[in-house]
Amino acid sequence: MDIEAALEEIGSAPNLERLQSLKVQYLGKNGRVTQAMKTLGQLPPEERKEKGRVLNEWKRALEEALAVREAQLKEQALQARLEQEALDVSLPGYAFPSGGLHITSLILLELVNIFRRMGFSVVEGPEVESEFFNFDALNMPEWHPARDMQDTFWVDFDRAAEEAFTIQGPFGEEVNGLGGAVLRTHTSGMQIRYMIQHTPPFRIVVPGRVFRYEQTDASHEAMFHQLEGLVVGPSITMADLKGAISELARGLFGKEGKARFQPTFFPFVEPGVQFAMWWPERQKWLELGGAGMVHPYLFKAVDDYRERQGLPRAYQGMTGWAFGMGVERLALLRYGIPDIRYFYQNRLSFLRQFRG
Length: 356
Ligand code: YSA
Known about the structure:
By secondary structure, the protein is of the alpha+beta class. The chain is 41% helix and 19% strand. The radius of gyration is 42 Å and the shape is elongated.
């Protein structure tokens, strides 16, 4: 065996696999050195001693060479890995997708903030509503043609009752006896709920989702949002209503913003108006919603309910105004969106244009 050639081969082994096979080849159970050692016994004593010494030296030299080369190869592999995995801090980072507010939330926040600045509180109410708060207490009895104006999703109340579903009144009391249950068709029912629970004066706005059994088209959805406003006090007038809506117009459209009112009918106001705002950029009026002076019937219905709850009547001699506007309609016009149905189709390419 040529020990020099063996050491040379080990020293230049290209990788750990090759090194391992060389180890087996020389020092393994059937390796050359091992085999040679096994034959020592057959030699005469003098020769055996000398050959044994040489073989032991080779074995030590081979082991040392193997260990040295193994260390070198491991070091090389480590260096290569470190180079490969090195962190390049100059590379651009990964973009983590972040969420944003929906266009409806953005415009609602804008509206609510304008009213907050005018001293209004923000309250919310239930989306499944008793027929009483959604219609009756708003001067829309069962036979009233105005109910047709708001085609309604009815909740199967008998089944809901079986499943122990109850609608709660303003004080948490059960109001199942007060007619059927509906998905609220407007936010105006909150006028009644709030008045029952509070004594005037107050100023509130109520943002919320409403539902109508509607044939959808570019400007009608079956689910949309309204913002309701209600101000009640001892000497609130129509002039205050005009002032607040005009202030809203300025908040939304800047210094040139102004509001226009035209008479119309809602059973819960007298007189009733619809209002539009001037859109300076497009030089045109936008129809936004309905408003008016709170109908005395509402104050009576509220005081009757309070009395049934053992509370003093609080609305005699009070006046107030209220309004309700369509939030998506405002967004449609403001951003020039051609179809209201885009709002809730969850198409990201549409929604991303409005991230707040
Ligand atoms: C009137 C007087 C008050 O003192 C208080 C509130 C009101 C508003 C009344 N409660 C109401 O709901 N009137 S409304 O049926 O005309 O709807 C108000 C606004 O909601 C509309 O002007 C429109 O902007 C929007 N709207 C109505 N139906 C819609 C809709 N938006 C989208 N899809 C629909 N299907």
